[in-house]
Design a protein that fits this description.
The chain is built from 11 helices and 15 strands. With 406 residues, the chain is α/β, with parallel strands linked by helices. The chain has 2 domains: 257 residues, Alpha/Beta hydrolase fold, catalytic domain (Rossmann fold, 3-Layer(aba) Sandwich), CATH 3.40.50; 90 residues, K homology (KH) domain (GMP Synthetase, Chain A, domain 3, 2-Layer Sandwich). It is elongated, with a radius of gyration of 27 Å. The mean pLDDT is 90.
């Protein structure tokens, strides 16, 4: 159903107030998920935003937050480390458990994914864990600090530039992360695992994904995010990861079909996502699709255009009607395919049209029929195609009463 985002806050492991966003469906969520961002990133990265949106579309609420000292959260980043990140994750899960419901799904990007693997055992309600571009060993992040390691060791701390921003790193961070291995942790995970990684990741080599995958026990899955970069900086890559993750997570939720939020039978619900100028979610029963416009028309091309949906309705109705008729009459129709094209044409260019002025809508429909059919059967099926319910609706008078809700 429709979704909403609200700002929330909670105390982290050190007591500092952490800033968070809760992306949730308008209806009662099927489950809750917890998202951990990458090293020195924030809860508002494209990966965090799109993945949370995708899960909320499927009825799963997602809490994404800034680790201590980052983004809108309080505290001093210099006093944090890998252990404190794990503590913040456990605190976030406790906040969900107390105020909503404990997270069933844990998702982490880059070092956030590695931290999620370590935190999973401390969040017993977890059913599934997903990592995105995550290092196998936490000390992989030391590669980002290699030019400053000597200064940190000698002086006890140093200012380090990461992704164009300066961060103060203390020696305690190095001491905490060095030599920390997750072999046994991953092997004893005891939850479903999805490892997502791009072979083009230049920050965390894809060999890390192989190590995580091989160390884990089944059920486990691997998805290549090619051609994405480490941060999933292209919108389409982040959206792709979110959609795949949402579909995968559903398999591990212990939710009855009757508990899944959905519009009333016979109704279609459409709502803007606010991601792009024309991007909308379309809810039909328990199905969720997207409607959008092509990039050339000012959209993001994340879904079918309104006229694409109209043609899809006509094409599907045509194929279903022909299948019903063929089975009823014993016609050996093996397969139906329907190709459609919508365009606006000048009425004067249409010899068979009654309208003679302005422009009219023209939908060209090409029907493919497979099977040992004689000419009479093929002609009859063509005749039946013009009697499909959607075809008749398009040719009949349609009344659309419209009013404002609320």
């Amino acid at each position: 159903m429709a979704q909403q985002t609200q700002s929330v806050s909670f105390p982290g492991a050190s007591g500092a107030t952490l800033a968070a966003r809760l992306d949730a469906p308008a209806e009662r969520p099927r489950a809750y998920a917890l998202f951990a961002h990458c090293f020195t990133c924030s809860k508002d990265t494209k990966a965090a935003t799109y993945i949370s949106t995708a899960l909320a579309e499927r009825g799963i609420a997602v809490l994404r937050f800034d680790f201590t000292g980052l983004g809108g959260s309080e505290g001093d980043f210099a006093n944090t480390n890998f252990s404190s990140n794990i503590g913040d994750l456990v605190a976030a899960a406790a906040h969900l458990r107390k105020n909503y419901r404990a997270p069933a799904i844990l998702i982490g990007h880059s070092l956030g994914g590695t931290a999620m693997l370590a935190a999973a055992q401390k969040i017993p309600e977890t059913l599934a864990v997903a990592t995105i571009g995550s290092p196998y060993d936490p000390d992989h992040v030391l590669g980002l600090l290699k030019d400053s390691l000597g200064a940190i060791q000698a002086e006890g701390e140093a200012l380090v530039e990461i992704a164009g921003r300066e961060f103060r790193i203390k020696k305690q961070f190095l001491d905490d992360i060095q030599g920390r291995k997750l072999d046994d942790t991953v092997a004893r995970l005891g939850r479903a695992l999805m490892v997502m990684h791009s072979p083009r990741d230049t920050i965390v080599d894809i060999d890390n994904a192989a190590k995580i995958f091989l160390a884990a026990k089944h059920p486990k899955s691997f998805v290549s995010l090619d051609p994405a970069d480490h941060l999933l900086s292209r919108r389409e890559d982040a959206f792709y990861a979110g959609q795949l993750l949402a579909a995968w997570a559903e398999r591990y939720l212990d939710v009855k079909p009757s508990e899944i939020p959905a519009p009333p039978p016979g109704k279609v619900f459409v709502r803007e996502t606010r991601e792009g100028k024309f991007t909308n979610q379309v809810f039909v029963g328990r199905h969720v699709i997207r409607a959008d416009e092509p990039v050339a028309a000012g959209g993001l091309d994340t879904g079918l255009s309104p006229y694409d949906l109209l043609c899809a309705a006509l094409g599907a109705c045509t194929a279903i009607t022909l299948r019903l008729y063929a089975d009823l009459k014993g016609i050996p129709l093996e397969r139906v395919s329907v190709e459609l094209k919508h365009e606006k044409i000048h009425a004067t260019d249409c010899a068979e049209c009654e309208t003679k002025e302005g422009k009219i809508d023209r939908i060209e429909r090409l029907i493919g029929l497979e099977g040992a059919l004689d000419s009479a059967q093929r002609q009859k099926l063509l005749e039946i195609a013009n009697k499909c319910p959607v075809h008749r609706t398009l040719h009949s008078e349609v009344v659309i009463p419209t009013r404002l809700s609320g």
